Amino acid sequence: MSALHEIQGIQTAHRRRMLETWSIPAGSKVLEVGCGQGDMTAVLMEAVGPDGHVTAVDLASPTYGAPETLAEATEKIQNSPLGDRVDFHFECDIRRADFPENSFDVAVMAMSSWYFGSPQELVETLQALRRLSPRLAFAEWDLHLHSSDQLGHFTAVQIQEMIESAKPESQANVRTPLTQDQLKSLLPRSGWTLDSESLVDSPDLQDADWEIAHTLKHSILEAEDLVINNEQRSMLNRDIARLREVAKPNGNRPLFVYSLTAVHGPLHDGRVG
């Protein structure tokens, strides 16, 4: 097995573990928000069966992504034996999309919430999903450390958050890393009520190695040009030193993923104070 196929196999197995926590029945009409290159999409397509369908949307342009663009990656999925179970919509802001009310059985957000520019944007998206689906299935990295060997992944995320929050604009994949408790506090503001929750542990995932490598190679260089005060610079330098101390060349343990489902709750104005 090639290294690429091994990586994809590990990533797919992780997404199947997340799927198991959501209990999405065959035949479902699924809306996936933040589909990216379609890793979760492919697993959802398998789950819904021949009578179900997945509508996958993403804010990004189809030309975004490297070494493979979103368009190239998702074209392969559409040309697969299950390709008739999916349609993709890029440059699609679900807050302004014109899907009819209650078009879907479940709305899925899998590892996509950190891409939002602010908690308010996330709340508005969750509110929009409430109009489109009676159920929400959500998963994201858990910023609570369950073991000391997750410190490298955690610290890399902290560094990226500090750097990206200091920029006037950001297109990075770590912009709004909310804790599990912070996310759950946004649910009632968005008109959702927590229904179930669980943790997913996939220790073989390569994401910790990728985030650490990106931080040490790219993020730290960007940090040198940031306009930040002395206290912020001191905190950033402290975390960079800690990352260099705890990170391994490879085999860093990733954070757990928290997974939840939610159903409709009372409507609120949804403003994040």
Set out the fold topology:
Elements lengths: L2 H20 L6 E5 L5 H10 L4 E6 L11 H9 L7 E5 L15 E5 L8 H14 L2 E7 L9 H15 L14 H10 L2 E9 L6 H17 L6 H17 L10 E8 L9
Parallel strand pairs: 1-2, 1-4, 2-3, 4-5
Antiparallel strand pairs: 5-7, 6-7
Helix pairs in contact: 1-2, 5-7, 5-8, 7-8
Name of the CATH first level of the domain at 3-145 and 170-204 and 253-264: Alpha Beta
Let me know the average pLDDT. 93
Proportion of helical residues: 40-55%
Biggest beta sheet summary: 7 strands, mixed
Give the radius of gyration: 19 Å
Give the helices and strands as they follow along the chain. HEHEHEEHEHHEHHE
Structural class computed from helices and strand pairing: alpha/beta
Assign the CATH topology of the domain at 3-145 and 170-204 and 253-264: Rossmann fold
How does the overall form come out from the CA principal axes?
globular
- For the record, what is the CATH homologous superfamily label of the domain at 3-145 and 170-204 and 253-264? Vaccinia Virus protein VP39
User: Count of helices?
Assistant: 8
Fraction of residues in β-strands: 15-25%
Number of strand elements: 7
- Across the major sheet, the strand order is 3-2-1-4-5-7-6
Q: Give unreliable regions as ranges.
A: none
